[in-house]
């Protein structure tokens, strides 16, 4: 999720994430959190998430790219 700079620090991300996790658990899903920004990782830790690994995204040279019109 993205929080507008003027609204940060008010607990909005934590409130929305708490609701999303609760909904996922009610639906018997496994909540996951993927984030690079430190602030997002702090929220995840506050909700009990643990960092278990990392993710690397790579764009290969010559790989076809899709445009909105091509999807």
Automatic annotation (TrEMBL):
It holds the Pfam family GNAT_acetyltran. InterPro entries: Acyl_CoA_acyltransferase, GNAT_acetyltra_YdfB-like. This is RimJ/RimL family protein N-acetyltransferase. It comes from Catenuloplanes nepalensis.
